[in-house]
Structure formats: structure tokens, C-alpha cells
Amino acid sequence: ARGGSEGNFSSISGRHPRTGIGIDGDGNLVIVVVDGDASFFSTGMTLSELANELKNRGAINAMNLDGGGSSALFFNGSICSNPNGGAGERAIANAILFVPN
After folding, report:
1. Among candidates 79, 60, 59, which has minimal Cα distance to 70?
2. Which one of 6, 27, 29, 79 has the minimum C-beta count within 10 Å?
3. In this structure, are residues 90 and 69 in contact, taking their beta carbons and an 8 Å threshold?
4. Prediction pTM value
């Protein structure tokens, strides 16, 4: 998203685990991690749904990060999401870290 507009994602309509990050109008960070691939608890989101979720949470500029099994949220020493539909986490080569000053 740029300037509050989600853009055109008509060709990316599958429901999958997704991770998105954005900035709201006050400069605050907005992060959304969505589980998926497991119909018993989450079916994921389309890319357009992720864009709308980021926008609904106040993001005016946002971007989609890697999805699927790479969508994982690690906080305070443990996995908070359910990557790979319950199959457990997989090795992820890249991460965005938030650390206190």
C-alpha cells in the first residue's frame, strides 16, 4: 500500500499465511502475521485482505513480506504464530528484529 491505497492485487487471490508491515500516520509500526494452511484454525488471507487489514489498523504505507511457512512471529522466546499449518516452524534465512534501545 502507498498513501492509503491498497493497489491492484487481482492476480494474487489465494488464501495463505502472510506477513505484512506498515507505518501509520503517526509513524508507528503496524505488523500483521496471519496463520493459514490449516482449516481447523486459520485459512490464511488473500493479499488484498492483508492490505485491508493493514489499512484497517491504520497503516498508510505498507508492504507484503514473505508468506507461507516463512510467516512466523517469535516474541519473548517463543513462537506466537502457528507456521506451516501445525507442522512446526522451518528454517528461515531472514528476519526483521525489533529490540529495545
Report:
1. 79
2. 27
3. yes
4. 0.77
CA 83 – CA 53 distance, rounded (Å): 19
Dump strand ranges (E) for the chain. 18-24, 29-34, 59-64, 74-75, 78-79
- Measured between alpha carbons, how far is 54 from 89 in angstroms, rounded to an integer? 24
Q: Per the structure block, which three cell numbers stand in for 33?
A: 502475521
**pLDDT tens digits for 61-77?**
999 998 887 888 888 88
Q: Which residues on neighbouring strands pair with residue 30, listed in sequence order?
A: 22
- CA nearest neighbour of 29 among 51, 62, 3, 5: 62
Residues of the chain with pLDDT under 50: 11
Q: Residue holding cell 491498497?
A: 6
Task: Enumerate the domain spans of the chain.
Answer: 18-86
Cell of 34: 496471519
